[in-house]
Amino acid sequence: MSAPRRFSTLVMVQRRRVEQALTRLQDLNVVQRQRELEREEAFENWEDSCAAYRLEQSRLAEEIATNMGSGAQVSLRSQVSRFAGASVRCEAARGRLAGMVRALEIAELNLASASTAAGEARALYRRALTRQDALLTLAASWNAAERKREA
Question: Is the pLDDT of residue 30 over 60?
């Protein structure tokens, strides 16, 4: 096989590698963007859960302050019932908050994994492109030297 044919075959193979690397990079960039959106959504849910938890805490504190500060005779059973209800709501909000923290941690791990994969794909694409450029430069140099020899 002649040198020009070998170069053209190598360049063709390398172009295919570059195209495959670019396709993979684009796919992984899409995945990374999706993971970023999932992380943002998880963060917003976490913030909402924090606000709901703080609201329930303030309601519980208000309920306690209202019943303690009032001089009105309220039955002990009624007070206990209201405190227990407020405490249960506060505990439920705390449970939702813990769930949102776990969801946020998972979203952050998924994003880190997607970012790493996309970074590796970028490096692979750059290497493939560099090889292709080197082959094209070598082929051009070789062709120029051939033309000089023939002239």
Answer: yes
Q: What is the pLDDT of residues 120-129, one digit of tens each?
A: 999 999 999 9
Longest alpha-carbon distance in the chain: 114
- Cα–Cα separations (whole angstroms), residue 93 to 34, 59, 75, 101, 113: 28, 12, 27, 12, 30
Contact (CB, 8 A) for 57 and 50: no
Q: Which residue has the tokens 């993971």?
A: 35
What's the N-to-C CA distance of the chain in angstroms?
23
Identify whether the C-beta of residue 97 lies closer than 8 Å to the C-beta of residue 45: no
CA dihedral 99, 103, 106, 112 (to 10 degrees): -140
**Residue among 8, 29, 30, 45 nearest 122 (CA):** 29
Residue written as tokens 């970023």?
36
140 phi, psi to nearest 5 deg? -65, -45
| 34 within 8 A of 71, measured Cβ to Cβ | no
pTM comes to 0.74
Kindly indicate whether the domain formed by 3-150 is annotated with CATH number 1.10.10.60.
no
